[in-house]
Design goal:
Strand content: 15-25%
Number of helices: 15
Helix content: 25-40%
Oligomer: single chain
Largest sheet: 7 strands, mixed
Length: about 475
């Protein structure tokens, strides 16, 4: 006698304490891209306790790993992240900005919840396969360096996801919704200029300023922005100005660029144009330029087949009610960033005209919610979000879909101390476990109706074309930890 989907999802409640403890432990040990050694151990230990076979050092990355259970096809991947952001150290459940350790990292994007919540989903799918004697394999992927490292991009390039029939993921946030639409592809590149030092007053004619080259490059890129497509974004940070002595011509300077556009080929074209500007800056200043490709990620490829299954489960899975204490905490925290009023008009941009009135009426009823305890109707337009995610690379390899789940007060700014403050809260725990159940429920539905896999694969093939996935990261580029303190 086997078990139902509902009974399989109860495995998450059974292991609730252990899952929440793992998420909190990752929050307690915030680590930035490709340095997540403690976080890796925490999640690997949880997987091993739950009966998964753990494999480490995927794609030669020390903090990339997987936890596998089952045998045969189909093979489903559940994606997890666990990296933090630099400089966002913050005390837990505080309504004031109080760093635990000034300048240290913090979980300002909720990835401590993301990793543990995805493990929760894998636990429930394992329960379903094991108790029903079903053929199929569930693989949790521990994916490092999403923030500025594109860990999944390196893993996809090296074939880690090639065996998957489909993949599911989620992200913490302030809305319960299926993530519909694409994202911006990007390249991240260092440009380094090498000049000649000299006394800036006594013999300036002997010097060749690397800092001048960086400034000229930045000016050239500023002019380029007018001639790029409207949706493109080109950001930079000067990471080395060549020293603190103005009476020395700077012999070295460095700038880090992040180039974004809706499609991979559009980013590649912009990248070549930025390269030409960098070469020109070196020629103008008599310096030498070296370029170091850091990482890239692809735009997300929508999959409506999987998105509809996720929406069904978002609406089916029961949510835990919020307590008065949780609502009061959310209200006080919202006061630190100007309140959490829902931007209904912004959300409506993602709906077709025929549905706008219906959706607007629904959203307006929740406009003043301090925690958004509702399910956003499935969006029916394909928009491009302003940010980037390396989930995009997985979505080119196999059908992939994602949800967002409420783990924070309404309107919480991303990458903020307020988000870090909520990462161990009961609000966050409830959203994480809900996300785990929704993902697991969707996977089980697809395993029960495997024609959906064929439909999802057909949709992917139509969207990406015959060429399929072409990794944007060159073969000789290895993952790089960019530590601003070093």
């Amino acid at each position: 006698m086997g078990i139902s989907k509902k009974e399989a999802l109860q495995a998450i409640e059974r292991e609730r304490e252990m899952i929440c403890a793992a998420s909190d432990a990752v929050w307690d040990h915030p680590e930035t891209a490709f340095q997540e050694f403690k976080s890796t151990e925490i999640l690997c230990e949880l997987l091993e306790k739950e009966g998964f076979s753990v494999e480490r050092n995927l794609a030669g990355i020390q903090t990339a790993f997987s936890g596998r259970f089952g045998h045969g096809k189909p093979v489903v991947g559940i994606l997890g992240e666990f990296d933090a952001l630099s400089g966002l150290s913050q005390e837990s459940e505080s309504i004031e900005k109080v760093p635990v350790c000034e300048g240290e990292p913090g979980h300002g994007c909720g990835h401590n919840l993301l990793g543990a919540g995805s493990v929760a989903a894998a636990i429930a799918v394992k329960e379903y396969l094991e108790k029903n004697g079903k053929e199929g394999t569930v693989v949790f992927f521990g994916c490092p360096g999403e923030e500025g490292g594109s860990g999944k991009g390196f893993m996809a390039r090296d074939g880690v996801f090639d065996e998957l029939d489909f993949a599911i993921s989620w992200h913490p946030g302030d809305q319960n919704e299926v993530s519909v639409g694409s994202s911006l592809a990007n390249y991240q590149v260092f440009y380094r200029f090498f000049g000649t030092a000299s006394h800036a007053a006594a013999c300036p004619e002997l010097g060749r300023s690397a800092l001048d080259a960086v400034e000229l490059m930045n000016t050239g890129v500023q002019y380029l922005r007018e001639h790029a497509i409207q949706e493109a974004r080109i950001h930079y940070a000067i990471t080395n100005t060549g020293g603190y002595s103005p009476n020395v011509v700077q012999p070295f300077a460095e700038v880090l660029y992040l180039i974004r556009a809706p499609k991979n080929d559009q980013v590649k074209e912009l990248f070549e144009r930025v390269n030409d500007i960098a070469r020109g800056a070196a020629l103008m200043t008599g310096t030498r330029m070296e370029m170091q490709f850091v990482k890239a990620c692809s735009n997300v490829v929508d999959n409506t087949v999987l998105e509809e299954v996720l929406q069904k489960n978002l609406e089916e899975v029961e949510r835990e009610p919020y307590t008065e204490a949780e609502l009061e905490f959310a209200k006080k925290l919202a006061g630190t960033y100007g309140g959490g009023e829902l931007d209904v008009q912004d959300l409506l941009k993602r709906y077709e005209k025929s549905r706008k009135a219906e959706v607007e009426a629904f959203l307006n009823a929740h406009k003043d919610d301090v925690i958004c305890d509702y399910i956003v109707p499935l969006k029916d337009t394909e928009t491009v979000m302003a940010g980037s995610t390396d989930v995009g690379d997985v979505s080119w390899v196999c059908p992939t879909a994602q949800i967002n789940a409420v783990t924070e007060a309404a309107g919480t700014p991303g990458h903020s101390w307020q988000q870090v403050s909520q990462g161990k809260s009961s609000i966050a725990h409830k959203g994480m476990l809900f996300a785990g159940k929704v993902m697991a429920g969707a996977v089980i539905d697809v395993l029960e109706d495997q024609r959906l896999i064929g439909e999802a694969k057909d949709e992917l093939k139509k969207r990406v074309g015959e060429a399929g996935y072409v990794a944007p990261i060159p073969k000789d580029v290895r993952p790089m930890a960019i530590n601003p303190k070093k």
